[in-house]
Design goal:
This protein is of the alpha/beta class. The chain is globular and about 65 Å long. Strand 9, helix 4 and strand 10 form a beta-alpha-beta unit. It is built from nine helices and 15 strands. Strands 3, 4, 5, 6, 7, 14 and 15 form a seven-stranded mixed β-sheet that branches. It folds into two domains: 150 residues, Quinone Oxidoreductase, Chain A, domain 1; 150 residues, NAD(P)-binding Rossmann-like Domain (Rossmann fold), CATH 3.40.50. 43% of the residues are buried. The two termini are 20 Å apart.
Length: 330
């Protein structure tokens, strides 16, 4: 029998999450039956989507939602032999038994010199989100100007680099001077600290006086209102997230109602999730890995060690403490 640790949601978040909203439990897992595997978690992903999904898709007492890289340590399923590495959706657990229906094999021939944690980052869901947002939603073209906020995060940093690969001009915003310096290292043409600029509207205008063809939106709130006014006519907006509003107890409103700006400028705004194009994932992951090996994509991870620190890592990510992908090494 294997003892599995897991983090439970004891109370739905009221505003910003608190330590008391989580409880660490231990359970004994049964031996896997025919068709099942026993998994040991190696890395857990820490993502902004966990905050709204915990409200809409979880009940109090459920294991916290999330994704992990895990190793098969017992198997009665020929599709997943012992020693195989997989992406699981079992939530915040150290171990779990699965019938394989919720597992994805890590890319075949994963290079030994590249950490498997990147399967939760640049060569995983965040990288795919960036790629599909750019290609499928925005249709970004060479020579266009792209704005991305939360640009030093897992998705935003990949967005900016892929846009540069495609020959675009990229402007990014982030929440600290250190993160702005990181964006410059990645090749962003312009970057600014939205927390310290005297005027967000002026900072956006100065970074791209002619306006923005495309906007990769991760933040929502006041930033969105100001960004819309800087869009070119017929601009396109990919809405990936709204992290500035996730911990609001009431819907956040800021500035003038944005719909009129959208009408006058005839903008296209589309919300999306990476899973819409999952049929393309194998080919897309190979492209991302290729850019990584060629040095065209750089990766930075914010690693927290220890499963017991999972809630702290989650809350730290919501505060913007991470640069790059937030990961917990179990």
């Amino acid at each position: 029998m294997v003892q599995a640790k897991m983090w439970i949601l004891t109370k739905h978040f009221d505003g910003f999450p608190k330590e008391s909203d989580f409880q660490l439990k231990v359970d004994e897992l049964p031996e896997p039956e025919d068709g099942q595997v026993l998994l040991e978690t190696l890395f857990l992903s820490v993502d902004p989507y966990m905050r709204p999904f915990s409200h809409f898709r979880m009940k109090e007492g459920d294991v916290m939602i999330g994704t992990q890289v895990a190793k098969v340590i017992q198997s009665k399923n020929a599709m997943f032999p012992v020693g195989a590495h997989v992406i699981g959706r079992g939530g915040w657990r150290t171990h779990m038994v699965s019938d394989g229906s919720d597992l994805l094999p890590v890319m075949p021939d994963w290079p030994q010199d590249i950490s498997l944690s990147l399967a939760l980052g640049t060569v995983g869901m965040p990288g795919l989100t960036a790629l599909y947002g750019i290609e499928e939603v925005l249709g970004l073209k060479s020579g266009e100007t792209l704005l991305v906020n939360a640009a030093a995060g897992a998705v935003g940093s990949a967005v900016g680099q892929i846009a540069k690969i495609k020959g675009c001009r990229v402007v990014g915003s982030a929440g600290s001077d250190a993160k702005v310096a990181f964006l410059k290292e990645l090749g962003f043409d312009e970057a600014f600290n939205y927390k310290t600029v005297a005027s967000l509207e002026e900072a956006l205008r100065k970074a791209a006086p002619d306006g923005y063809d495309c906007f990769f939106e991760n933040v929502g709130g006041p930033f969105s209102t100001f960004a819309l006014s800087q869009m070119k006519d017929f601009g396109r907006i990919a809405v990936c997230g709204s992290i500035s509003t996730y911990n609001d107890t009431e819907s956040q409103t800021a500035g003038p109602y944005p719909q009129m700006t959208m009408i006058v400028k005839q903008l296209k705004m589309e919300g999306f999730m990476q899973s819409r194009w999952e049929r393309k994932d194998p080919e897309s992951l190979r492209r991302l890995m290729g850019w990584l090996k060629e040095g065209k994509l750089q990766c930075r991870e914010h690693v927290t060690k220890g499963f017991e620190n999972m809630p702290a890592a989650f809350m730290g990510m919501l505060r913007g403490e991470n640069t790059g992908k937030a990961i917990v090494a179990v």
